[in-house]
Specification:
With 468 residues, the chain is an alpha/beta fold. The chain has 15 helices and 18 strands. Nicotinamide-adenine-dinucleotide binds next to helix 8 and helix 9. This is Aldehyde dehydrogenase.
Amino acid sequence: MNAVLKESNRFRTLFDRLQTRVHALALTSAEERADKIRRLLKATLEARPAILAAAHKELRVNETDVDAQLLMIKSEAEFITRNLAVWMAPQPVQGSLMTLGKKCYIRYEPKGVVLHLSTWNAPIAEAFVMAYGAIAAGCTFVLKPSELAPHSAQVLADICAKVLPEDELAVVNGGADVATELLQLPFNHIFYIGGHQVGRIVMRAAAEHFATVTLEMGGKNPVIVDASADLDEAGRKIAWGRVANAGQVCLAPDYALVHASIVDAFVAALARHMTAMYNADGRGFQRSPDLPRIVNRRHFDRIKALLDDALDKGAKLEFGGDTDADDLYIAPTILTSVTEDMRIMQEEIFGPILCVLPFNEREEAIATIRRRPKPLGAYIFAKDRAAIDWFMARTTSGSLVVNHNLIQSGTNPHLPFGGVNASGIGRVGGRATFLECSNARSVVEDQYPAGDPNIMFPPYSDKYKKMI
Ligand code: NAD
């Protein structure tokens, strides 16, 4: 690291305190760590009104969206605190010929100081899933919430300051400049949630200190709708998956590959369900209390530009398409006749627009998916078991859901969450976050008297040859 930068870094003193504190935290029991997690959860649930107000200002989400986040961290906290003693216990491993008479086991030790550069679309859940895992592992933790959700960031800072001292859990608020400064410090592990351009910056900065990383990114998640699918069910679930949080969900289906024989019926089902969910009273989608807004003008302009580019190049607007910049509103939208040269097929949309592409042969669908980086999530809708297996075996992604979407995250702590290559590195949720923050130290203990005093030491002659 550049010495001048090191000295002038605003966060150096804080970092040093967190680093010193780790040594004491390494000696804490499962119960002490669990108590901290429980107290954090309690303070978070008590702050529900402030969390709601913040989320409403930022995304105009309703209570249910916020409560879904609270429910998620509640079950995460309960799962961790229930299992932590077992996870922390030294894990014996099988012996071997070469370690005969010795004790071999794995000890989970805190990696040290952990940084989390978080994002804005579910800011409470995204902050605490990582924080709980770090606390469970005995690490100290710096949270840098996203500047795009400043009200939630302030609530997060208030909750954390109320529960734990700054040298254990610090919240540093600010934008890319603050993130850049933090990244110069020798953190032991870095969590990052966001787009892959910044993910690359984070990984480069981590390399400087050989910090390990967990990158939770996104991409274009495909949904395959086989000819055997229940179209009404598929339409209902995908309409929800695409429009929830106004499409600002990393796991949202981004484009649908639909068997050509059912495209029209699928589009009709989608449109019917989008209407039933967000415009049942006919007063217009914009007035739906369940349809959030795009987070800011920059993201609104980005999504609008993707839509305009597609329409200019010949995409067909099947449904929706309305936008209102002053209100940061984009209607649930369905496009067909999309082609590879359109930007909407090259970038993650992260908005409530679904592209529907027909396929005749299954291989065409697979080729479309393989032309892109490996996705975070993939979805298959089919009743035919052989079709499900065929598509599953020929695709890859961080997670896969059959006959549904979005439900692989935050619903079952036994299922770790994450991407693959450009959509993410590492896993979080349940034990996975604990493991990301732990050094799995391999330990061999020899016994007295030593189990095998001779074989390692000279004179060797042909001792090993006899064993081959
Ligand atoms: P963002 O703009 O909030 O950025 C994320 C974090 O990176 C913030 O803390 C921000 O301050 C920091 N940052 C921004 N520029 C930086 C820089 N130059 N150097 C260092 N840090 C910097 O997030 P975003 O990119 O708008 O988020 C949307 C993306 O996040 C989408 O691609 C989405 O798929 C992905 N996402 C992934 C998950 C997941 O769990 N996999 C969850 C939510 C969102």
